[in-house]
Amino acid sequence: MGRGDRRSRGNRGQRERAAASFDRVGIQIPAIAVTPQPTAGLGRAPAAGNFHPSVPPRDQTRSLPPSLEASNNQRARNMARGTNSYRTVGPRAPNPTRGQRTPRNVATESRPVATNARRPTAANIRYASDPYGSSNGAGLRPRWADWDAISLRVRGLPLNTTTSDLWSAFEHGGDIILIELFEKKDGTREGNARITFSPPPTKQFWEDRMELDIQGQIAKVLVDLMKERRERPVVADGGRSYPASLSVGMLALQFGVLLSETQLMPLRTVQKTVDRGFSLIANLRDKRLEVMFDCGITDPRHEDSSIRHPSEIGQMEHILECKTHIPFTHLKKIVFIDSDDTWALLVSLPSPPIFFHKGDYSQSFESSKGTWHARDAWNRITDVAYDTSWFKDEIVALPKTGRFIDIGRWTTYRLVFPKSALKDWERMDAALRDFNIIVERTTPEIFSMVPAQVSDFWQKLDPQQSDGGSSTMNLALLADTEYIYLPYDVRYQLEACISQGILNEVNITTDFLRKLADLSKDRTRRRDRAKDLLGYLLEPRVGNRVEDRGKLDERRIYDPMSLFEDKKAMSHYPEISLPEHCVWVRKVVVTPTTIYLSSPAPEPSNRILRQYSNYEDRFLRVQFTDEVAKGQIFSDPHGKRDNALFNRIYRTLQNGIRIGGRHFEYLASGNSQFREHSAYFFCPTDFLTCDNIRDWMGEVNHIRAVAKYNARLGQCFSTTRVPKASPIGQTIVQIKDIENDRWCFTDGVGKIAPSRAQFLMQNLNVKKPIKSLPSAFQFRLGGSKGILVQWPEVPFNEVHLRPSQNKFNAISKGLEIIKTSRFSVATLNRQTIIILSCLGVQDAVFEEMMKRQVAGYEQAMGDPEVAMRLLSKYVDQNGVTTTMAQMIADGFMHSKEPFVMTIMQVWRAWSMRLLREKARIVVDQGAFVFGCVDETRTLRGHIEPTESSGPSNNKDPNKLPQIFLQVPKAVGPGEQGEYTVITGICMLGRNPSLHPGDIRVVEAVDVPALRHIRDVVVFPAVGDRDIPSMCSGGDLDGDDYFVVWDPKLIPTEWNYPAMEHDALKPEELKRDVKVSDLISFFVTYIKNDSLSTIAHAHLAKSDALDDGPKDPQCIELAQLHSNAVDYPKTGRTAHLDAELRPRMYPHFMEKPPHKTYRSGKILGRLYDQVAKTEFKPNLNGAFDERILRRYAPKAETLKMIRMIKRQHDKAIRQIMNQYDIKTEFEVWSTFVLSKPRVGSEYKRQETMEPVMTNHRERFREACIKAAGSREPETLYPVIAATYYVTWEEVQIALREQPAERREASNLSEMPLISFPWVFESELGRIATSHGKFELTEMPEPTIASLDDYGDDDDDVDAFKDLMSAKLEDIEVESNGDGHGSKNQEILVPIVAQPTQPIEEESVEQEELVELEEDGETNMDALAKLMTDMEAD
Question: What is the pLDDT averaged over residues 921-943?
């Protein structure tokens, strides 16, 4: 840690005594403070005003109030004398002279503790080794006094000793930075501890034998000095080594905003008042800058008497120690500004850093933790204000009131230093440069300071919501303010630009707002030019321009009026068409200090957004994260350091968000969104409120458990597709669950007719080729959920549901589909490998599989045959590898086609990363599929062992439970694979598997009555216990199971006793659940969710302990993990006790070095086998000549296709921006390499599948409509034109770009090339066609520059008209060309049906939904369908 943390705590009382707080969810808001304005000494910087758009400027050069000034002067005198006059907040009084008295809870055996009156000597001090030159009777300075830190070992402590006890006993001796209670390997305390002081005490205060008061009991302990532990130097990339931290003393710190690229507007200044701790620290080990500063705050009523507050003026003025952390990765460059008497550093950040204030040490200890560090006393802050209670009821918005420093928006900092600090800076400067941080030099003449100014931006837009109600000055300002009306969608985009730092209020003029308003007045039904202009700024490509590189802020627009002269900006037209099954969603990210708004983006729809589609712009999806540089908010069940973050979340949920003049209120949260700390907000109207919407969701008022109530509402937010309704209505038939006294065998599974299954697929508009009809559908229907499996005896119009599927009654009665069953290859992971290893599978098996798989990926990059074989065998859950295998079979790898070769590189990098980080080993003889139940009750079930039946590990196959599984045979690309029934001994499980009993050994058998079920594992419906519940507590409502029949992976120990995953009983209220209960649970969940922490602890313990997952500690952790998984449904937290927390982690978990040991077990060896693989796209390859020469492109066709490509590329960039994906190749393949900033990547590929399916469908349809037909002779020339246009753009870009810049790092400057590959199968047919080429040689680009491609204005009407056009009598492409087997598409719907089924009143046992439409047409269609089914 930096020396900035090693500071006097004597003024703690002064800092803390006036801290205001409020507590809504049992969380205390930390005290917040800032320092007053400077009076002089800032070189050329003028006095800065207290900028806030809604607050007038205040005099920043006035003196401190007498009370605060006197206390500061007294503190300086006290420090000079080495004394402290401040009262400490806490249970003890502070030491007036550190190290010169005997602490009240420390006693010695027969003599006083060493003080100045009696100096200890070598005769009465016993050390761990030599005395290290300890002080002696001659008064020589001890050698350890020159160390950076000393550590005392304390032995013989009671086992219940806490870190707080030791701090109280030893804090009189100096500045303690670390206390560690040593633990045994099993996690229990051993009675010894280490206490580290930095800097070392001025005198020796300890003796070799001491008596300590530990919780009221006297403990006799041994104390000795440990050997010096020198901190290792940090080696930079260039090979030079530096100390772990470097420090430079500061004079002042200014917060402000950039007015231009060479002008700073300081808005608040914090000035050094005492000679300590005001410094800039380069923490090279943690790779970050740390700015330490004292923060004092004065009462704003000194300057504005109209402000009302219940306290006396000046009563709550206080001083706190503050710091901020700026990661090197967040820091682009530093500007050095030299002047006559001082010098300064300018740091401009794209988003706020993390701020802390130093709290009360006595409140920073956790009794359950065996380690305490001085940093634990530093608490997060989210606001800097005189009194935080002023805004406890404030609606969250971009403009803030009552803040002394807006740390969320003022993100440009000027650090002022004395000339005497230049020598220290020179060394820090060299180190920062070696860490790839740019340091530029300039002068005050080039980079200047400008006086602060008041912006009336927000008053112009929202005069009725201004903050002037309490201030006569603001009322006067409001009277002179012009009101400018902007429609909500324009206001939203404008605030989005401000929130993302593209625009700032200080640059926005009245003329700019008037111009926007005038543009918006000319809006049409299709577009609003003002909204589109602002949307242009929010496009992710803006800011990647060459001319912006090297700027302090690449995205910032300092002259908004210049946009009206920008041809591209004025002609910009955003993505127009909406993918089917999608809706426009506005997303807001709330961080601890600010909010970020995103442009509306297409997202898969859900029941609520469809029902209230007319109110689409009144919904917000709000996600809570930490600051951008940190990512997600991590749980902190027992700590208090992050309480300010959780209070910020609570206030947002409770008070709502204001955007564009609208007040959005908390509505509810979907189950997956809840885990990602996300929720939906809604802006009520006079006729529709949040309560109205929640009432429409369903009847849940009878549920008194808050967690379950929340989960039931969350069902309505599941991402679903609505198939067109059955032509003869739908009947819901209730059937019984199959269960015994304890277990339910049919939990979550219902039935549907095969003919209805085919009808569903035909009417889901799923145009992606499929090989067989899905056997199961994951669904939502009103308040019911689970899966529906096709069974021959079910009538067409019936849906059979069980009680286990019915969760609540809902008004909605339409059938909604989440996903369908499909085959995916089985994979191992770290958890399953370590469990299989402990159950007897040889480690050599995993090592050989890993070795073979790594070698296969390497060979696949150069050998098309190997690539096709692996891609066909290693089928991912989205089936992308099958598509890629077909592309290789069509010869695109042989021709080195750039897109195909890059996609191959993505696949390899993605697979290798998962191998290294997750040990994701593909199992050839395995499947990953849905689970369902054997309705015929033929399969043998699980029988619990008894004394008469023999031991539980009896390897008699005749006693194993049975399953049925039918999967496709491995075939070549493009071939229609036959299905085969798996038979023999199998290993079965579900992710995540942490308990040895989660892996089951079963027998797969062939049952003719079950052969209609494919790509689904069928479990028995009889026995003592259902199999799914034994697999990590699974059920049949859509859970996926892996089944492996590779003999080498069958454990030698069969069926270890399964854990009973009994969910804890939910906590219930004695009243109805209120919205405030949902809000409190949301915040409490974020604070207490320990799922990932428990999983990491289990993995580390499984590797470290001899018995691995069978060790009692691991068994307990597995149970805790099960409880943590159920936390969102039960509301019962899973607390991870200290003894279960690992102290060290295996190296494959990639923890910090000081917490890492090298593992020699299987996971460590597997990790070492795989090297990191970088993805480096290369677009220099030649496009395929077979396609470019096939047809002679027509000018009109090319013009239309260019227009469609522009829209396609906008959509791809929007997806990249929306999901934090770096390249289009990751988007197209769904093999995303980057980790999400928030949330888990476990289901990221699954999340991307519907997004890309909708994207492909939309642009396929656009091109088909442009062609006018689906017939190959008409459509294929248009598809070839998509390839030609893409090739043309790349050729022009390569010609315009210097050769030295054609690297992966400049990929953002190259055109996107994925557009043609929405027709990947058709491109293959064109390439492999035996027809003649229309061109005898390669074509030339038909335009000279990308600027000739036309403006977005040209797209406005053309694309909209194209997408709204109807292509009459479109039929499925004929298979007469001999390639039909390659692209067997789902048939186009037989007859047009309404989008939503018409709902009827429910009856007690069954419900009939009738459709008001042409009955004859529907019956004819049904008759034809049934005839076709019978013919098949």
Answer: 95
Segment 1268-1283, tens digit of pLDDT: 888 999 999 999 999 9
Using CB atoms within 10 A of its CB, is residue 136 exposed (0-12), middle (13-18) or buried (19+)? Answer: middle
Run of H or E residues at 1120:
helix 1112-1130
Per-residue pLDDT band at 1238 (split at 50, 70, 90) = low
Mean pLDDT on 833-849: 95
CA distance 75 to 81: 10
For the chain, how big is the Rg over CA atoms in Å?
34
Q: Which of 800, 707, 771 lies closest to 979 in space, CA to CA? A: 771
Distance separating the N- and C-terminal Cα atoms of the chain: 74
pTM of the model: 0.82
How far apart are alpha carbons 1006 and 1000 in whole angstroms? Answer: 19
Kind and range of the H or E run holding 1002: strand 1000-1004
CA-to-CA distance for 240 and 238, rounded, in angstroms?
Answer: 6
* Paired tokens of 562: 């210049």
**pLDDT beyond 80 at 139:** no
- Residues near 403 by beta carbon (within 8 Å), at least 6 away in sequence: 52, 383, 384, 385
| Amino acid in position 1274 | T
φ, ψ dihedrals at 598, nearest 5°: -115, 150
Please, what is the Cα angle at 824 between 818 and 825, to 5 degrees?
155
Task: Specify the pLDDT at position 79.
Answer: 37
Beta pairing partners, 942:
1023, 1025
Of 854, 816, 848, 813, nearest to 833 by C-alpha is 848
List, for residues 196-211, the tens digit of each pLDDT value: 999 999 889 999 999 9
Distance CA 820, CA 779 (A): 9
**DSSP helix/strand/coil, 1388:** coil
pLDDT tens-digit series, residues 573-630 = 776 667 778 888 999 999 999 999 999 988 889 999 999 999 999 999 999 999 988 8
The stretch 258-280 carries a mean pLDDT of 88
Sequence-distant (≥ 6) Cβ neighbours of residue 567 within 8 angstroms: 1351
DSSP line for 614-683 = GGGGGEEEEEE-S-TTT-SPPP-SS--TTHHHHHHHHHHHHH-EEETTEEEEEEE--HHHHHTTEEEEE-
Question: How many Cβ atoms sit within 10 Å of the Cβ of residue 399?
Answer: 23
Kindly report the backbone phi and psi dihedral angles of residue 330, in degrees, each rounded to the nearest multiple of 5, phi listed first.
-95, -5
Residues in CB range of 262: below 8 A, 6 or more apart:
446, 447, 448
> Could you tell me which of 744, 745, 715 has the C-alpha nearest to residue 807?
715
- CA dist 820 and 774 (Å) reads 6
CB 832 within 8 A of CB 788: no
Cis peptide before 992 (omega within 30 of 0): yes
